[in-house]
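quick one before i forget lol
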Amino acid sequence: MKKRSVIIVIGVTAAILFAATAALSADKAAGNLSNMFYEKWAGYEIRYPSGWVMEKPDKVTVLFAGPRGTDDYYTTVTIQNVASAKFGGKHQNVQSLISDLKAQFTNSDPGTKFFNEKTFAFTSEKGTPVNAITFGATYTLQGEKLQQWAIIIPRASDLVYHVFFYTSPARLYERNIKTAYDMLGTLKLLEGSK
């Protein structure tokens, strides 16, 4: 794969966004989440591995990636905030957002396959459970087969949805999934945000 673009589906405008990606360095990442991302506007905090970079491709997205030159240069963890209909967005609920995501995947690659959709309890900013939904997808972009794990997490206020993406070339997906799970395990929604 010569280009570093991966698909990040969704957005406030519901367009497909493309973001530059870099690596999840599996050898350095496991159990080494010593960096902390926290900015009040985001509404969450999350830990990420030492040596990684954090980028903000736009005002609602944060991308976490490792340094250039690693074998896993083309995998990323991305978190995007999406406004609900109550907050000026277009989605009435999580299922509406998921339907939109899937439509965007399919429009980009009609051969997209979806799998493992399920609901699970996630702790909200109020300390109570909210129903998050996760699913996986495989698709082709610029000739490269990619695999993505998406988790849609509503806030208790139901004003914003946080969408956590782990995206990787399919051949590297299993190798780096533990880092994504570890990062998700540190994701904490914060009070005082929408």
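fyi The longest strand covers residues 129-141.
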